[in-house]
Sequence to fold (176 residues):
Amino acid sequence: MASKKAPKEEPPPEEPAVPIELEGTGKFYYPTGATYEGQWKLLNPPLPPPVEDPKEAKKKKAKDEPPPPPPEPPKRVRHGQGVYREGDYVYEGEWFEDLMQGTGTFTYASGSAYSGEWRNNKYHGKGTYSWPDGRQYDGMWEEGRMQGLGVYRDASGHRWEGQFFNGSGPGLTCQL
Fold:
């Protein structure tokens, strides 16, 4: 009796890869109860496995090298225009890779608000900070502090203009 050879099975056809969204719009919910609604992007998208030359693979195995560390997992981050709310705190403006960066307005629970330029989650550039009692600073900011030319109006309406340094205003002149 002759043995029959089993027909050679062909591998199943590869299913087309599901495209990974690298950016989009949506709503994020945080464990603290905060929300973000707006644009996002995907950091560290998964890469296809590298095509390796068999000769190179043998050389690597011979060297007994430890495997490379695993890649950082993909993460969706706030990026573009959006609104972040946490309780009575609201930021509406631009984001860059999960940081407030560009222009935007942050309103505090107290009623105070900053509207202007941001860099790395700090007031940086031209901006205006207003207090609920009527005080206001309009001018330059650096790393979250009043720095450079600016105008401060006190609660009585007096206007102080001049050079601010590290959050305070030496050499200001009162303009009644």
